[in-house]
Amino acid sequence: MAAPIGLHPTATLAERVLLPGDPARALLLAESLLEGPKMFNHHRGLWGYTGLAPDGTPLTIQSTGMGGPSAAIVISELVDLGARRLVRAGTCGALQPALQLGDLVTATEAIAADGTSRALGAGERALPGPDVLPALLAVAEHAGPVVSTDLFYDPRGLERPWSAGGALAVEMECATLFALAAARGIQAGALLVVSDLVLPARQRIGQKDLRAAEQRMGRAALHALSLVGAP
Known about the structure:
Number of domains: 1
CATH architecture: 3-Layer(aba) Sandwich
CATH superfamily: Nucleoside phosphorylase domain
Distance between the termini: 21 Å
Oligomer: single chain
Structural class: alpha/beta
């Protein structure tokens, strides 16, 4: 690969990778999921760790930063280095009343309302890998389409049309991950914690509850990965 921009690996990369956006979540998941974690990357503040998961198989947990452009750099470099099964372990804002703070959502598709996935060749919707999706469906309370957007603080008022169109939640990186995975021939999926209720009024989860939900998400995502065979 060309000289990396986002990652300067300092440990071995596992073929299966969890992708939180937040570096602090990467550390939390490494501490709770890995035996003997070693820092895989700290360049640009994108913390990553590799260690043995409870099933005895290596696992890398690598933060992507916020948004499609940052995620695209990290994911591209991980694939160049040998990653083959990727699961985004992120957060989302609920667009449907059935979702509650702390719930887990499996993305069955990403509505590409962002620029990065479109630049990568995605159409209106990007799909997760067919091998990873069934395992993720088994570990979440909810499953359905999510919207990937470029804006966290979005003044356009698109949340209600997205909700009316059937989207369960909104987030920022799934479409990029799915588009890159399809282009590179690897398996990818996404498991998300509901960190915000967007409609009818915005409500944010408490920090203690968020950390507990993130740990639950990490265990669930790892269990799903353990059900997916090597490519």
